[in-house]
Amino acid sequence: MNGIKDFLVWFRNGLAFSYAWLVLCTVVWALASGKEGISASFLIKLFILCIWGVFVFRISFISRRVQKKGFLFSLTLFYLLFIPAEIALLYFMKVFTTKGSIWQWGAFGAIVVLTYVSSVVIDVCIMRKKAVLYTQKLQAYVAGNGEGR
Q: What is the model's pTM?
């Protein structure tokens, strides 16, 4: 029962954060582009996008089974589950209105690849070194305190 409660609390918090952030960005975009308002149907579609994003994030990064397979597996799973749905929902929301040019899709692909590569570099260069340091400090602590007691 605690697992379901934890999932729902985490889901609520993630949904509230992501939806509030995207609504704020949408309002700024609407004001900057001279739009008169934002439709309720657009906000509902944005909410659906946030629900899917939080659900996929929860599965990809918080699920214990997926975490055991490592960060790169989690990141790849997130990208594979979220990006196609994001593109479909952005067309459904009429943010994307045409099929786009090769340059637009190339820019989108480059952004996706750049963020993926950046995440891999951060994981390999920074996080793994910190994990080694953390492990060394933990082992020193355990050795100095008689098995951690």
A: 0.72
